[in-house]
Design brief:
By secondary structure, this protein is mainly α. Helix content is 47%, strand content 4%. It has a two-stranded antiparallel ribbon.
Length: 97
Amino acid sequence: MLQSVNHSKGQYVRDGIVHTNGIEAVWSLFKRQVYGIHHHVSVKHLDNYLGEMCYRYSRRDMQEGERMNDLLAKVAGRLTYKALTHDEAEIPKATQR
């Protein structure tokens, strides 16, 4: 069930468990990732940047090697530079997988 707090009325925590600290922490981590790693994000790939951040956050308790092995186990196929940088409509069907 979705609940909310009303900051304009000075309410920041309700019933001891409803608050915005979690989402504020996640957005802070995402902003640090953009400024520290990527320096710029495009609208086209924003969903991928957020997906990467969610992946890292969800596995934050793993050691770096474990996280890398988990990532490599999920790789399916390859991503070409052309597919990464061009719109799908510009890529011939024969090269799309």
